[in-house]
């Protein structure tokens, strides 16, 4: 059984050029058309995807870094539910799991060792917070706004353990408009999953949100012929996240964020076998 609790506070002063950057986030790949063609024929293609690959909001087309970015709709269409599924979002990127630890590789660069205290050569960030432990790098993806995969060394901007590249996960910001979204699913092998996202404004300057994700598999995909118990059973996964957004002025944003995760893996041996050992 594994528990994780993380909390973060960020203070951002926004310039006038970046005040409306969220309006440019769309599903798909960014395209660029000449200004003359756009003025004659109106909007063409898909709007730019805004990324923070250089620690500031800018169009994906103008970033001088190899970046693969996907939005929440694309993540949902690909069936990605946790970080172990992220290999599907970008070429030359794989994320392997070993004994409950995540070991990402970008362009073949990564760390093969998986043990307590070991850190990867590909960094994972959630809302600007570095996730150092390999075991803490496996978690459910809920309330996602977009995911960026930065290829190549990124230590100049992001510091240690970014030799191979970086995975940046950005979650949704609280909104003053009240919204409630949720999904519930049930599948084979008694698999149950549920997700909830809710946000509302507490005042004209304060907004809050809550995101929760839960999944559990009742039966394994097979049977252990030695013990007679279920095998290949997905762990119980619970993830909770909340953000509080304070905007005292038009150019200042203060965000308080906290998240909690609990992953419980099935025991390798039944209780009576463990006592015998």
UniProtKB/TrEMBL annotation:
GO biological process, one term: iron ion transport
One Pfam family, short name: Plug
Membrane topology, record value: Multi-pass membrane protein
Cellular component terms (Gene Ontology): cell outer membrane
Keywords: Cell outer membrane, Ion transport, Iron, Iron transport, Membrane, Signal, TonB box, Transmembrane, Transmembrane beta strand, Transport
Transmembrane segments: none
Leader sequence segment: 1-22
The keyword rRNA-binding belongs to this UniProt entry's keyword annotation: no
InterPro entries named among the record's database cross-references: Beta-barrel_TonB_sf, Plug_dom, TonB-dep_rcpt-like
UniProt-annotated location(s): Cell outer membrane
Domain TonB-dependent receptor plug residue range list: 60-165
Domain of life of the source: Bacteria
Protein's name in the database: TonB-dependent receptor plug domain-containing protein
Organism: Sphingobium quisquiliarum P25
């Amino acid at each position: 059984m594994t528990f994780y609790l993380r909390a973060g506070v960020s203070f951002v002063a926004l310039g006038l050029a970046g005040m409306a950057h969220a309006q440019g986030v769309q599903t798909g790949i960014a395209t660029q058309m000449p200004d003359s063609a756009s003025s004659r024929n109106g909007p063409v293609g898909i709007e730019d995807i805004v990324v923070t690959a250089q620690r500031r909001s800018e169009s994906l087309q103008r970033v001088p870094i190899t970046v693969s970015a996907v939005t929440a709709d694309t993540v949902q269409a690909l069936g990605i539910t946790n970080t172990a599924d992220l290999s599907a979002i970008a070429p030359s990127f794989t994320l392997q799991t070993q004994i409950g630890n995540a070991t990402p590789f970008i362009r073949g660069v990564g760390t093969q060792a998986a043990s307590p205290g070991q850190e990867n050569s590909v960094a994972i960030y959630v809302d600007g917070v570095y996730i150092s432990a390999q075991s803490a790098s496996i978690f459910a993806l809920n309330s996602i706004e977009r995911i960026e995969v930065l290829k190549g060394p990124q230590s100049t901007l992001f510091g240690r353990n970014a030799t191979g590249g970086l995975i940046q996960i950005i979650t949704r910001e609280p909104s003053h408009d009240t919204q409630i979204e949720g999904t519930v699913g049930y599948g084979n092998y008694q698999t149950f999953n549920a997700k909830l996202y809710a946000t509302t404004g507490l005042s004209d300057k304060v907004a809050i949100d809550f995101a929760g994700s839960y999944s559990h598999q009742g039966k394994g995909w097979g049977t252990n012929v030695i013990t007679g118990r279920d095998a290949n059973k997905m762990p119980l996964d619970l993830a909770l996240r909340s953000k509080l957004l304070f905007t005292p002025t038009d150019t200042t944003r203060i965000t308080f964020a906290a998240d909690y995760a609990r992953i419980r893996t099935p025991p390798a041996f039944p209780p009576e076998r463990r006592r015998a050992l």
